[in-house]
Amino acid sequence: MAMRSTFKVVFTSAACLVIGSPACLHAQGAGATAGFPTRPIRIVVPFTPGGQPDIFSRMIGQKAGESMGQSVIVDNRPGAGGMLGSRIVAEAEPDGYTLLSISAAHAIGPSVRKLPYDTRKDFAGITMAYNAAYLLVVPPQLGVKTVQELIALAKSRPGQLNLASAGAGSGTHFAGLMFQHAANIDIVHVPFRGIPEATTDIIANRVQVFMAPLASSVPLVREGRLRALGVSSPARVSVFADVPTIAEAGLPGFRFDSWGAIFAPAKTPRAIINKLNREFTKALALTDVENKMRDLGADPAPTTPAELDKFIVRELATIAKLAQLAGIKPQ
Q: Helices then strands (H, E): number in the chain?
Protein backbone atom coordinates (compact mmCIF):
# COMPACT_ATOMS: atom_id res chain seq x y z
CA MET A 1 0.00 0.00 0.00
CA ALA A 2 2.82 2.35 0.90
CA MET A 3 4.65 1.40 -2.31
CA ARG A 4 1.54 2.12 -4.40
CA SER A 5 1.12 5.50 -2.75
CA THR A 6 4.78 6.38 -3.38
CA PHE A 7 4.50 5.30 -7.00
CA LYS A 8 1.43 7.50 -7.46
CA VAL A 9 3.26 10.57 -6.19
CA VAL A 10 6.28 9.99 -8.42
CA PHE A 11 4.10 9.27 -11.44
CA THR A 12 2.03 12.39 -10.87
CA SER A 13 5.15 14.61 -10.60
CA ALA A 14 6.59 13.12 -13.77
CA ALA A 15 3.31 13.64 -15.58
CA CYS A 16 3.31 17.27 -14.51
CA LEU A 17 6.77 17.75 -15.96
CA VAL A 18 5.91 16.05 -19.24
CA ILE A 19 2.32 17.08 -19.77
CA GLY A 20 2.14 20.36 -17.82
CA SER A 21 -1.62 20.04 -17.27
CA PRO A 22 -3.47 22.94 -15.58
CA ALA A 23 -4.35 20.73 -12.63
CA CYS A 24 -0.70 19.80 -12.14
CA LEU A 25 0.47 23.37 -12.50
CA HIS A 26 -2.13 24.46 -9.96
CA ALA A 27 -0.92 21.81 -7.55
CA GLN A 28 2.69 22.87 -8.02
CA GLY A 29 1.77 26.54 -7.54
CA ALA A 30 -0.09 25.73 -4.35
CA GLY A 31 2.95 23.81 -3.09
CA ALA A 32 5.27 26.71 -3.91
CA THR A 33 3.13 29.19 -1.96
CA ALA A 34 2.38 27.07 1.10
CA GLY A 35 3.27 29.25 4.07
CA PHE A 36 4.60 32.07 1.88
CA PRO A 37 6.43 34.13 2.97
CA THR A 38 8.78 32.15 5.19
CA ARG A 39 11.58 34.74 5.13
CA PRO A 40 11.94 38.51 4.61
CA ILE A 41 10.83 40.05 1.32
CA ARG A 42 13.09 42.57 -0.42
CA ILE A 43 11.62 45.47 -2.37
CA VAL A 44 14.22 46.94 -4.70
CA VAL A 45 13.72 50.67 -5.26
CA PRO A 46 15.95 51.68 -8.19
CA PHE A 47 16.38 55.24 -6.92
CA THR A 48 18.02 57.00 -3.98
CA PRO A 49 16.06 57.40 -0.73
CA GLY A 50 13.60 60.28 -0.46
CA GLY A 51 11.58 59.92 -3.66
CA GLN A 52 8.00 58.72 -3.94
CA PRO A 53 8.80 55.05 -4.72
CA ASP A 54 11.08 54.95 -1.66
CA ILE A 55 8.72 56.77 0.73
CA PHE A 56 5.62 54.83 -0.24
CA SER A 57 7.38 51.44 -0.45
CA ARG A 58 8.51 51.80 3.14
CA MET A 59 5.03 52.84 4.21
CA ILE A 60 3.23 50.01 2.40
CA GLY A 61 5.93 47.43 3.05
CA GLN A 62 5.79 47.93 6.80
CA LYS A 63 2.04 47.36 6.90
CA ALA A 64 2.15 44.36 4.56
CA GLY A 65 5.03 42.87 6.54
CA GLU A 66 3.12 43.18 9.79
CA SER A 67 0.15 41.41 8.20
CA MET A 68 2.27 38.58 6.75
CA GLY A 69 4.46 38.15 9.81
CA GLN A 70 7.69 38.79 7.90
CA SER A 71 9.92 41.80 7.38
CA VAL A 72 9.63 43.71 4.12
CA ILE A 73 12.98 45.39 3.46
CA VAL A 74 13.47 48.30 1.07
CA ASP A 75 16.75 48.07 -0.83
CA ASN A 76 17.74 51.25 -2.71
CA ARG A 77 19.72 50.45 -5.87
CA PRO A 78 19.93 53.72 -7.85
CA GLY A 79 21.49 54.30 -11.23
CA ALA A 80 20.79 54.74 -14.93
CA GLY A 81 17.28 56.11 -14.47
CA GLY A 82 16.11 52.99 -12.65
CA MET A 83 17.74 50.47 -14.97
CA LEU A 84 20.26 49.04 -12.51
CA GLY A 85 17.75 48.14 -9.82
CA SER A 86 15.21 46.93 -12.35
CA ARG A 87 17.75 44.56 -13.83
CA ILE A 88 18.37 43.02 -10.41
CA VAL A 89 14.67 42.14 -10.15
CA ALA A 90 14.35 41.00 -13.77
CA GLU A 91 17.16 38.51 -13.17
CA ALA A 92 16.08 37.46 -9.66
CA GLU A 93 14.61 34.10 -8.74
CA PRO A 94 10.84 34.32 -9.45
CA ASP A 95 9.83 33.24 -5.96
CA GLY A 96 8.18 36.38 -4.59
CA TYR A 97 11.06 37.39 -2.33
CA THR A 98 12.58 40.04 -4.63
CA LEU A 99 10.20 42.72 -5.87
CA LEU A 100 10.48 46.04 -7.73
CA SER A 101 8.88 49.31 -6.69
CA ILE A 102 9.28 51.85 -9.47
CA SER A 103 7.81 55.01 -10.93
CA ALA A 104 6.85 56.03 -14.46
CA ALA A 105 10.53 55.48 -15.29
CA HIS A 106 9.52 51.85 -15.84
CA ALA A 107 7.57 52.81 -18.96
CA ILE A 108 9.97 55.56 -20.00
CA GLY A 109 13.11 53.43 -20.01
CA PRO A 110 12.63 51.66 -23.37
CA SER A 111 12.14 55.01 -25.12
CA VAL A 112 15.36 56.60 -23.86
CA ARG A 113 17.90 53.80 -23.49
CA LYS A 114 18.73 50.31 -24.67
CA LEU A 115 17.83 48.04 -21.77
CA PRO A 116 19.27 44.66 -20.75
CA TYR A 117 15.73 43.39 -20.10
CA ASP A 118 12.26 43.56 -21.64
CA THR A 119 10.03 45.90 -19.62
CA ARG A 120 6.86 44.14 -20.71
CA LYS A 121 7.97 40.50 -20.71
CA ASP A 122 10.42 40.28 -17.80
CA PHE A 123 8.13 41.60 -15.05
CA ALA A 124 4.78 40.56 -13.62
CA GLY A 125 2.56 43.27 -12.19
CA ILE A 126 1.41 43.00 -8.57
CA THR A 127 -0.44 46.28 -8.03
CA MET A 128 -0.36 49.95 -8.84
CA ALA A 129 0.51 51.80 -5.63
CA TYR A 130 -0.27 55.47 -6.22
CA ASN A 131 -1.06 58.24 -8.67
CA ALA A 132 0.35 61.73 -8.25
CA ALA A 133 1.48 64.78 -10.17
CA TYR A 134 4.80 66.46 -10.76
CA LEU A 135 5.29 69.95 -9.41
CA LEU A 136 7.11 72.50 -11.55
CA VAL A 137 9.39 74.24 -9.05
CA VAL A 138 12.07 76.93 -9.20
CA PRO A 139 14.33 78.51 -6.57
CA PRO A 140 12.74 81.70 -5.16
CA GLN A 141 15.89 83.67 -6.00
CA LEU A 142 15.24 83.07 -9.71
CA GLY A 143 12.60 85.78 -9.43
CA VAL A 144 9.78 84.19 -11.44
CA LYS A 145 6.34 83.54 -9.99
CA THR A 146 4.36 82.04 -12.88
CA VAL A 147 4.81 79.51 -15.66
CA GLN A 148 4.63 82.29 -18.24
CA GLU A 149 7.34 84.29 -16.46
CA LEU A 150 9.59 81.22 -16.44
CA ILE A 151 9.03 80.64 -20.15
CA ALA A 152 9.75 84.30 -20.91
CA LEU A 153 12.97 84.18 -18.87
CA ALA A 154 14.12 80.97 -20.58
CA LYS A 155 13.47 82.48 -24.02
CA SER A 156 15.42 85.61 -23.11
CA ARG A 157 18.37 83.45 -21.95
CA PRO A 158 18.48 80.43 -24.31
CA GLY A 159 20.72 77.63 -23.10
CA GLN A 160 21.48 79.38 -19.81
CA LEU A 161 18.91 77.81 -17.49
CA ASN A 162 19.39 74.26 -16.23
CA LEU A 163 16.72 71.54 -15.93
CA ALA A 164 17.33 69.12 -13.07
CA SER A 165 16.23 65.49 -13.09
CA ALA A 166 16.70 62.41 -10.92
CA GLY A 167 18.64 60.79 -13.74
CA ALA A 168 18.42 60.32 -17.49
CA GLY A 169 15.29 58.31 -18.26
CA SER A 170 13.62 59.02 -14.92
CA GLY A 171 10.08 60.31 -14.64
CA THR A 172 11.38 63.73 -13.62
CA HIS A 173 13.57 63.80 -16.73
CA PHE A 174 10.75 62.96 -19.11
CA ALA A 175 8.30 65.34 -17.40
CA GLY A 176 10.89 68.11 -17.75
CA LEU A 177 11.48 67.28 -21.40
CA MET A 178 7.77 67.41 -22.09
CA PHE A 179 7.61 70.85 -20.45
CA GLN A 180 10.64 72.03 -22.42
CA HIS A 181 9.14 70.95 -25.74
CA ALA A 182 5.63 72.21 -24.93
CA ALA A 183 7.04 75.63 -23.96
CA ASN A 184 9.50 75.64 -26.89
CA ILE A 185 12.41 76.73 -24.72
CA ASP A 186 16.12 75.92 -24.78
CA ILE A 187 17.22 74.72 -21.34
CA VAL A 188 20.07 72.36 -20.44
CA HIS A 189 19.31 68.98 -18.87
CA VAL A 190 21.41 68.18 -15.79
CA PRO A 191 20.84 64.60 -14.56
CA PHE A 192 21.48 63.84 -10.89
CA ARG A 193 21.84 60.56 -9.05
CA GLY A 194 18.42 60.93 -7.46
CA ILE A 195 15.70 63.22 -6.09
CA PRO A 196 17.62 64.41 -3.00
CA GLU A 197 20.65 65.46 -5.04
CA ALA A 198 18.53 67.33 -7.59
CA THR A 199 16.56 68.99 -4.80
CA THR A 200 19.72 70.15 -3.01
CA ASP A 201 21.01 71.86 -6.14
CA ILE A 202 17.76 73.59 -7.08
CA ILE A 203 17.41 74.98 -3.54
CA ALA A 204 20.94 76.36 -3.96
CA ASN A 205 20.01 77.82 -7.39
CA ARG A 206 22.70 75.75 -9.12
CA VAL A 207 19.90 74.47 -11.35
CA GLN A 208 16.79 76.51 -12.02
CA VAL A 209 13.96 74.23 -13.17
CA PHE A 210 12.74 70.91 -11.76
CA MET A 211 9.62 68.83 -12.32
CA ALA A 212 9.67 67.46 -8.80
CA PRO A 213 7.57 64.64 -7.36
CA LEU A 214 4.96 66.09 -5.04
CA ALA A 215 5.88 63.86 -2.12
CA SER A 216 9.40 65.23 -1.87
CA SER A 217 8.59 68.87 -2.68
CA VAL A 218 5.52 69.60 -0.50
CA PRO A 219 7.45 70.49 2.69
CA LEU A 220 10.05 72.52 0.79
CA VAL A 221 7.40 74.64 -0.92
CA ARG A 222 5.58 75.16 2.37
CA GLU A 223 8.84 76.29 3.99
CA GLY A 224 9.47 78.76 1.15
CA ARG A 225 12.67 77.03 0.03
CA LEU A 226 11.17 76.28 -3.39
CA ARG A 227 8.48 78.07 -5.39
CA ALA A 228 5.73 76.06 -7.08
CA LEU A 229 4.59 77.34 -10.47
CA GLY A 230 2.28 74.58 -11.70
CA VAL A 231 1.24 70.94 -11.43
CA SER A 232 1.47 68.43 -14.27
CA SER A 233 -1.93 66.84 -13.66
CA PRO A 234 -5.11 67.82 -15.56
CA ALA A 235 -6.68 69.13 -12.34
CA ARG A 236 -5.31 71.03 -9.37
CA VAL A 237 -4.20 69.03 -6.36
CA SER A 238 -5.76 69.51 -2.93
CA VAL A 239 -2.42 69.85 -1.15
CA PHE A 240 -1.66 72.97 -3.28
CA ALA A 241 -5.11 74.17 -4.32
CA ASP A 242 -3.79 77.65 -5.15
CA VAL A 243 -1.20 76.34 -7.62
CA PRO A 244 -2.57 76.17 -11.19
CA THR A 245 -2.15 73.28 -13.55
CA ILE A 246 0.53 73.85 -16.16
CA ALA A 247 -2.24 73.55 -18.77
CA GLU A 248 -4.25 76.42 -17.31
CA ALA A 249 -1.09 78.44 -16.69
CA GLY A 250 -0.41 78.75 -20.40
CA LEU A 251 0.31 75.37 -21.98
CA PRO A 252 -3.12 73.97 -22.94
CA GLY A 253 -3.34 70.18 -22.97
CA PHE A 254 -0.16 69.67 -20.95
CA ARG A 255 -0.32 66.56 -18.79
CA PHE A 256 2.25 64.19 -17.38
CA ASP A 257 1.27 61.82 -14.58
CA SER A 258 3.46 60.46 -11.84
CA TRP A 259 2.68 56.94 -10.68
CA GLY A 260 4.25 54.07 -8.81
CA ALA A 261 3.71 50.33 -8.97
CA ILE A 262 5.08 47.07 -7.59
CA PHE A 263 6.31 44.21 -9.78
CA ALA A 264 7.75 40.74 -9.42
CA PRO A 265 10.01 38.87 -11.84
CA ALA A 266 8.17 37.22 -14.70
CA LYS A 267 7.30 33.55 -14.05
CA THR A 268 6.60 34.20 -10.37
CA PRO A 269 3.81 31.71 -9.47
CA ARG A 270 0.39 33.25 -9.89
CA ALA A 271 -0.62 32.21 -6.38
CA ILE A 272 2.29 34.25 -4.94
CA ILE A 273 1.41 37.24 -7.14
CA ASN A 274 -2.18 37.08 -5.93
CA LYS A 275 -1.18 36.83 -2.27
CA LEU A 276 1.16 39.80 -2.56
CA ASN A 277 -1.57 41.74 -4.35
CA ARG A 278 -3.99 41.06 -1.49
CA GLU A 279 -1.47 42.15 1.13
CA PHE A 280 -0.34 45.32 -0.63
CA THR A 281 -3.84 46.44 -1.60
CA LYS A 282 -4.96 45.79 1.98
CA ALA A 283 -2.13 48.05 3.18
CA LEU A 284 -3.12 50.75 0.67
CA ALA A 285 -6.68 50.71 2.03
CA LEU A 286 -5.61 51.47 5.61
CA THR A 287 -6.80 54.89 6.75
CA ASP A 288 -3.42 56.01 8.10
CA VAL A 289 -1.68 55.02 4.85
CA GLU A 290 -4.29 56.84 2.76
CA ASN A 291 -3.98 59.97 4.91
CA LYS A 292 -0.17 60.00 4.79
CA MET A 293 -0.18 59.54 1.01
CA ARG A 294 -2.68 62.33 0.48
CA ASP A 295 -0.73 64.65 2.79
CA LEU A 296 2.16 64.16 0.35
CA GLY A 297 0.00 64.83 -2.72
CA ALA A 298 -0.58 61.24 -3.85
CA ASP A 299 -3.67 59.06 -4.09
CA PRO A 300 -3.61 55.32 -3.35
CA ALA A 301 -4.39 53.49 -6.61
CA PRO A 302 -4.59 49.72 -5.99
CA THR A 303 -5.27 47.47 -8.98
CA THR A 304 -5.39 43.81 -9.83
CA PRO A 305 -2.24 42.29 -11.36
CA ALA A 306 -4.01 42.02 -14.73
CA GLU A 307 -5.06 45.67 -14.64
CA LEU A 308 -1.47 46.76 -13.94
CA ASP A 309 -0.07 44.62 -16.77
CA LYS A 310 -2.57 46.15 -19.22
CA PHE A 311 -1.76 49.66 -17.95
CA ILE A 312 1.95 49.11 -18.61
CA VAL A 313 1.27 48.02 -22.20
CA ARG A 314 -0.76 51.21 -22.79
CA GLU A 315 1.78 53.42 -21.01
CA LEU A 316 4.68 52.02 -23.02
CA ALA A 317 2.84 52.91 -26.23
CA THR A 318 1.93 56.39 -24.99
CA ILE A 319 5.48 57.22 -23.88
CA ALA A 320 6.93 55.88 -27.14
CA LYS A 321 4.69 58.28 -29.10
CA LEU A 322 5.67 61.22 -26.88
CA ALA A 323 9.36 60.35 -27.26
CA GLN A 324 8.98 60.21 -31.03
CA LEU A 325 7.32 63.64 -31.09
CA ALA A 326 10.12 65.03 -28.93
CA GLY A 327 12.81 63.44 -31.13
CA ILE A 328 14.08 61.21 -28.31
CA LYS A 329 15.72 57.93 -29.29
CA PRO A 330 17.13 55.08 -27.16
CA GLN A 331 20.82 55.60 -26.46
A: 12, 10
Cite the residue boundaries of each domain of the chain with CATH code 3.40.190.150.
39-132+258-325
Residue-wise pLDDT for 45-87, tens only, equals 999 898 889 999 999 999 999 999 999 999 999 988 889 999 9
Cα 182 from chain centre: 23
* Ramachandran assignment for 224, one of left (phi > 0), alpha (psi -120 to 50 degrees), beta (any other): left
- Rounded to two decimals, the pTM is 0.77
**Higher local confidence (pLDDT), 170 or 4:** 170
Residues 6+ away with beta carbon under 8 Å from 232? 133, 134, 135, 136, 175, 179, 211, 245, 246, 254, 255, 256, 257, 258
DSSP 91: T
- CATH domain 39-132+258-325 topology: D-Maltodextrin-Binding Protein; domain 2 (3.40.190)
> Closest by alpha carbon to 280, among 59, 117, 89?
59
CATH 3.40.190.10 in the chain is located at: 136-240
According to the CATH classification, is domain 136-240 in 3.30.428.10?
no
| Residue 263 three-state SS | strand
